[in-house]
Backbone:
């Protein structure tokens, strides 16, 4: 199969979907790999390394002519003309918060396989996992920076100092993002509260963190009280494939202290804070109701070297299946099939259909 690796064009997105090592593996399996020139430069991977691995260095247009295109982020409007019916596209899509992209994929008839909805029998999301780990660990880091007075924040040090109390950090969601955020926030010395609706998950977090964090049920009264006292709120809520629920309302945000910070990691799924909207790495924050909001939808793109290798570690086995078997790989692997979001003009993710009001069928129905 011919596989294309385009350069990412999202603002300051420096990740690349395949490393030279991954390309070498694909080539050894008999596949041809087209890598857009400079695709890996942002991750410290030069064209010469890809050529040495057996790839051919091409233009963007040539990379998109491949049978299977592997990306990191969703296609942007400038890339919509490259979409076509006989294309397999394997990338993060996050369609529930992006109707324009959804309709572009449907109009083109493209088979879109979303990293974020590939799901194992135990309910885990193996291709979302590595970037959730990165984003979770970044969240307290960027939140601490935003709390600095020069960034519009309260001028509060996350960990405090002897004689001065640390910052209050409220993490909404105790999954992969929330757990990793808690690790870093605790390490920085903050006072951390994690909210979740799953009691078993809270028991787990209580066991691993012991007295270093507080766990609380994610109810409206509990969140309202926590938001009012928080110096930093980290949104870490995920409903696979669907829009994130708006758990922090604008009324809650208005009760926060001036210069408090919100970092909503769920922003690529619409966000769990009502006042959040997508920002970019070059302009990551804005102030609304006196509160600093950070809404970068591709947080891991800020640490591309780490993120690229972490992502490819997880995606390569599935990329090999798609390269070897094409659509048949979806029929053979039920977990990979759950990644199917669009196919031959049909929406094949029920959660996206519900979020956007578009009729949808299941991947199984689409694949026959």
Residues:
């Amino acid at each position: 199969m011919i596989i294309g690796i385009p350069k990412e064009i999202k603002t300051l997105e420096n990740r690349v979907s395949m490393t030279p090592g991954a390309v070498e593996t694909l080539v050894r399996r008999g596949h041809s790999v087209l890598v857009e020139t400079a695709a890996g430069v942002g991750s410290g991977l030069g064209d010469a390394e890809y050529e040495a691995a057996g790839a051919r260095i091409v233009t963007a247009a040539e990379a998109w002519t491949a049978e299977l295109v592997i990306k990191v982020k969703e296609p942007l409007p400038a890339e919509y003309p490259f979409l076509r019916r006989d294309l397999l596209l394997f990338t993060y899509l996050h369609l529930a918060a992006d109707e324009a992209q959804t309709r572009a994929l449907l109009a083109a008839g493209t088979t879109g396989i979303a990293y974020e909805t590939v799901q194992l029998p135990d309910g885990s999301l193996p291709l979302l996992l590595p970037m959730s780990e990165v984003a979770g660990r970044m969240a307290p880091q960027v939140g601490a920076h935003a709390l600095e007075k020069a960034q519009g924040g309260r001028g509060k040090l996350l960990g405090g100092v002897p004689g001065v109390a640390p910052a209050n950090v409220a993490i909404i969601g105790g999954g992969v993002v929330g757990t990793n955020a808690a690790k870093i926030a605790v390490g920085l010395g903050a006072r951390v509260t994690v909210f979740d609706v799953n009691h078993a998950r809270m028991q787990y977090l209580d066991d691993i963190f012991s007295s270093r964090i507080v766990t609380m049920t994610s109810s409206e009264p509990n969140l309202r009280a926590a938001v009012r006292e928080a110096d930093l709120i980290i949104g870490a809520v995920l409903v696979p494939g669907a829009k994130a629920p708006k758990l922090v309302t604008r009324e809650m945000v208005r009760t926060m202290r001036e210069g408090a910070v919100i970092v909503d990691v769920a922003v690529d799924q619409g966000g769990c804070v009502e006042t959040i909207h997508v920002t970019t790495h070059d302009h990551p924050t804005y102030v609304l109701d006196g509160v600093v909001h950070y809404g970068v939808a591709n947080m891991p793109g800020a640490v591309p070297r780490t993120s690229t290798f972490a992502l490819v570690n997880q995606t390569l086995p599935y990329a090999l299946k798609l390269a070897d078997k094409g659509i048949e790989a979806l029929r053979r692997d039920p977990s990979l099939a759950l990644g199917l979001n669009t196919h031959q003009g049909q929406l094949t993710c029920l959660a996206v259909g519900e979020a956007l009001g578009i009729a949808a069928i299941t991947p199984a129905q689409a694949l026959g």
Remarks:
- Residues 2-118+304-367 form a domain with the Rossmann fold fold (CATH 3.40.50.720).
- The chain has 14 helices and 15 strands.
- The first helix runs from residue 20 to 28.
